[in-house]
Here is the input.
Amino acid sequence: FMVPYGASIEIVLQDTSFLNPENHPIHVHGHNFFIVGRGFGNFDVVTYPARYNLIDPPESNIVAVPKGGWAAIRIKAANPAVWYRHCRLEEHASWGLATTGFIVQDGPFPSQALLTPSEDLPLLSVSELLLQTQYEHI
Here is the structure.
């Protein structure tokens, strides 16, 4: 999802799968965040936010989502780019726990925006990238 530069966002990560509940260490690239809440069972949007730790929440770039539970994080989107979010257990990527987390848009000032690519940056199509990757592994 697209996020304006400087926005504060809250993400609730839920792990109450019926098939295989398991602890998931979730890592967000490009940002530190505050872990404002964590619990077991399904997240209740009415009850649980009132229990958040907003005084001194731990700051990190990884959060352990408990087996059969949830974790709530808050991020200040101040680093423009496409940011990846994934479970640190590599096999879980095939379960769908590796995804583009969010896209932070450029801010109003040059220091808050992505740099323009240099003019000599070669442009490659996806098929050219795949072909190049195949040759590198031979």
In short: Helices lie at 126-136. The two ends are 37 Å apart (CA to CA).
